[in-house]
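Attaching the record inline, Q. Sequence:
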Amino acid sequence: MSQYAKLLAVIDPEQKQQVSLSRALEIAQKTGASITAFLTIYDFSYEMTTMLSVDEREAMRQAVVDDRTEWLTQLVTQEITDSSISVDVKVVWNNRPYESIIYDVIDHHYDLVVKGTQSHDDLKSMLFTPTDWHLLRKCPVPVLLVKDHDWPEDGQIIAAVNVGTEDEAHAQLNHKVTNIAQSFADLLNGTVHLVNSYPGTPVNIAIEIPEFDPQGYNESVKNFHLETMQKHAIQHSVPDAQCHVKEGLPEDVIPAIASQIDAELVVIGTVGRIGISAALIGNTAEHVIDALRCDVLAVKPDGFECPIRR
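Structure, as predicted:
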């Protein structure tokens, strides 16, 4: 966990419980990491003050920033129970929270962004804001989305992998996801599970080609994924009992296994598609994340280029 020495905890003033700060403090207590409690604010009434002088507008803006800084400082002081943990406070004026977060990550070289999510009581799942999705797609460092629950010792950590791929970049991402899952398992004295889904027989092929053997095809695909999973597991010293290879879509299989083993955290790689490609093709990781009921750590592949620039 030494790779996460600087944490950025995103504060949500609309929430009573700042789960991002609580989780960041929990990580810092175990690792010695430093924390910055980060709040983005913007008062849209500011847009209506153009008749004021530049100095008057700046004084108004600064008054709001100072007020929120005082509030955040008091909040952090109340939350800290370990005096050895270093927590800074930062309030930024910006009407696009995700941009201000990413700017600060780039400028100050944070290793991990920790952000709370809202809970949907009826669905027992997480509700994501536009800021969450922007961070998942564009943030250059891992993003930990957390719910309001404890991280117990002996927790179950899932590394969501795609071992059936022959693409080198995806294979490297599999190793990165697994290594990070193991580092969090070490942090929690927990257990790593590898989860991989594989597609079933395409219905149209079975219908259009009479001599096609769907059962044999399914068995062949299953065996291929089992073999590649075993190779990946051996590389990372993960026992067979903690490897899960299931037929189905990732957005169905991964949440189902997470629920079955009562996972505390799912680590998943995301390629961070943006723009038209994201709208037309979608992002498998986002579909998976949307269906999960536990904490999620989204990891970008090596070489990812952040689309946000100063």
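Residues 1-148 form a domain with the Rossmann fold fold (CATH 3.40.50.12370). The longest strand covers residues 34-41.

More tomorrow.
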